[in-house]
Amino acid sequence: MKIPFHIISGFLGSGKTTFLKRIIDSYSEKYKLGIIQNEFVPSNIDGVELKNSGKDFHLLEINKGSVFCVCLLGDFIRSLEKFIDEHRPDVLIIEASGLSDTTSVAEVVSSGSLSEKIYLASNWCIVDALNFKKAGLMRQRIEHQIRMADKVLVNKTDLVESVDKLQSEIRKMNPFAEINATTFCNAGFLPGDAAVSKFYPDSGNPLSRPEVNSMVIKSGKKISKEALVQFLNEWASKAYRIKGYANMKDGKTLAVQCVFDKMELISVDNNFHPTELVALSDQFTLKQWNKSFKEYVQK
User: Fold this and answer.
1) Predicted confidence (pLDDT) per residue in 227-237, tens digit
2) Going from the N-terminus, what domains does the chain have, and what CATH number goes with each?
3) What SUPFAM superfamilies has UniProt attached to this entry (predicted)?
């Protein structure tokens, strides 16, 4: 049975560790939690804080740069496989570095033998309502994290007068994310089997977790809108969900979301984002899907 893999991203000081502590407090007695903390610096103060909580969980610390960086991706995948084999967690949660570019996250869950052990259950991004505009040159990183998220928490709302404009800005970056305003990251989290419900709305609680595959297409190639629609029509009915961004030959970028036969395409601003499509399915493989995409790009 595959293990649900949850990502928590967000810029420095946004509240990621606070959110993770809430999850550990709520679920460490019900689930065998595997926690991955990723920081750029050798000293992991947040890891010490979690260990001092007295809660029962297993911790994997990686403190030499972003695990989503190409230069570390291979090492991270091997470390994660070893961690899974050693501890056999029910749920995996990674607190990504505040400087992480999580656009490579799907490459983790779809890579080699790891794809047989985990699936991407949710991708959270914590946004600091007070300091969002102060990110400066790191703004690009934040926008990447937001664009890859299923759920966005606008945190520290008690420190600002209004978050309406910020939420509108986030909505332009990611038209399909669930956006919630919070204080101290007080938000609901669904671990384990429950996290799959958003992809399997008709599956009742007694059913076991489906053996779903997470897979990603990442490409610098541009595609026509007509070819993209044809491609999605061919595969959407075979997938529980397809989401991501596609760069068009006419220079536009479309946010893509398909849930079974329902397809949504929304034009978004694009400055630096490659085409990236993520699918959850048990009816086709990454090799088949990627081959088909390359064929449609040529049309």
Assistant:
1) 999 999 999 98
2) 3-198 (3.40.50.300), 213-297 (3.30.1220.10)
3) P-loop containing nucleoside triphosphate hydrolases
